[in-house]
Specification:
It is a single chain. The chain has 574 residues and is of the alpha/beta class. It folds into five domains: 79 residues; 99 residues, Beta-Lactamase (2-Layer Sandwich), CATH 3.30.450.20; 154 residues, P-loop containing nucleotide triphosphate hydrolases (Rossmann fold), CATH 3.40.50.300; 74 residues, Helicase, Ruva Protein, domain 3 (Orthogonal Bundle); 52 residues. The protein is 53% helix and 13% strand. The protein has a five-stranded antiparallel beta sheet, sandwiched between helices. The protein has a five-stranded parallel beta sheet with strand order 12-13-16-11-17. A hairpin with a 6-residue loop joins strand 14 and strand 15. Helix 1 packs antiparallel against helix 2 and helix 14 crosses helix 16. The longest helix is centred in the middle third of the chain and has 59 residues. The termini are far apart.
Amino acid sequence: MGICKDKGLLTAATTLHLHAEERLGTEIAERHPPRTTEAAQRFVHESGVRQVELEIQNEDLRQAQMKLELSQNRYAELYDFAPVGYFTFDTHGVIQEANLTGAQLLGIDRRLLANTPFTTFIADADGRDIFSNHLVLVLQRQVMLRCEIRLTGNDGTVINGQLQSVAVTIENKDAYILTSIIDTTVRKQLEEKLQKARDDLESIVHERTRELTSANAQLTQEIEERKSTEELLQIAYAEINRLKDRLQAENVYLQTEVDQRYNFGEIVGQSTALSRVFAQVKQVAPMNATVLLLGETGTGKGVVARAIHSSSARKGRAFITVNCTTLPATLAESELFGREKGAFTGSDARQIGRFELADGGTIFLDEIGELSLELQCKLLRIIQDGEFERLGSPRTIKTDVRIIAATNRNVEEQIRNGKFREDLFYRLNVFPITMPPLRQRKEDIPLLINHFVAKFNKKIGKKIESVPLDILNTLQEYHWPGNVRELESVIERAVIISQGTSLQVLDRFDTFRTREDLAEQEIKTLVEVEHDHILQVLQKTCWRVEGENGAARFLGLNSSTLRARMRKYKIVRQ
């Protein structure tokens, strides 16, 4: 396009120059010689003006010639050093012109390509036929067409070439074909390698599939044989047990689940005390009532909370557990109710609280007696109104959450000591369930041992199949101050140290406390409770013993009796 424009500019300037000279000559010829001095001066002036015009036109012509030369040079550079080989053929496929890239592609000097039939460089007869048909179609359709042929370079190298051709017809002259050839050899090689890699991969996959199928069939056969062998062994063991009374243990056969008669979700047992808990769970689970779980540590309050959720209409939604004991005092509010970005120093992002996460589901507040009075107030508002605000946000958030709370503390005593809100207790105590300690459900201990042995066999990779009778009796007689959690810990350690298929707990016998030891411990605990209670009342009354507002009156003791207790417990005002 640039060359055509420059040629047009040059032609226009040349025409203008010739027209000006003709006009000047004509005017001079037509005019009569000046007869007066004034006419002569006017003639000279007009001649000078026309001379200037001719010089300007000559300068425009020189500029146009320079632009044309620059454009021709630029076109020559672009043509010669283009990354694609360019060829011009006549209608018979004879090379008329080629750029440097095209000559380098064929490995022949550019000057030797002129007037050479292009079919000379085509590697095979099929390619020559394709090229001839390609030329015919390009001339007939007058559109750009493509084809692929194999070429032979001057050094015998085979080149895969992609041709892209178009017919060009010059006015009053024959038609020509500006074909571009792209070397696709590397692409062809890569495609061939890729196809070979695919074929190899398919072959490997086929072979590996055959091997796996064979191995799977063999493994299935081995499993069936092992099952048959295990059945025979079980029959043999049963026969031995009937004929000989050699075992001192009750067999604990491995099973993935405990019998449903003795299992409510994850709660294992069949005792009367636990059956009452099962009945209460079945009663309250379908409802949205708030539940308060009471009982000692390790009695399974968390398991009961999950069983209530799993048996409710909310079982498909979230079950969020919050251990109030582990909540940091400074972050408790943001953990429960969430916070906005920048609510306090260090809060560089918005946080969703536990109540917001539990929306539509259930939230289990374990050890709720550890909550501060301020958080107890906000919890009371959620129970009453179902709404709260994130820390640092004035916007009220609505939530639909079922609350299950649990504590191992004496809530009524906490209320008397001012550590728990009475109105919150009434809201939580809608449906209380008291979890029985393990010492009150000893008949469940064999089932629990069965459950935990199966659990830790699978976890640790052991094969404990029996529990000696003396060990079973010892475990049933123990008082279990840590309840089910302590029993689980004992069984896990026993499975770890046991050799063979019989459960051993020898390393635990010396740590078991007798009932007498436990009674002594309970006495010490009562003494400590009384000591702490007296100390707290004295602190509230500012260490005033007597009088209407004295500690003795609040404790229901005589002032002399209170002083005697203070001396006994060594309670002294600091």
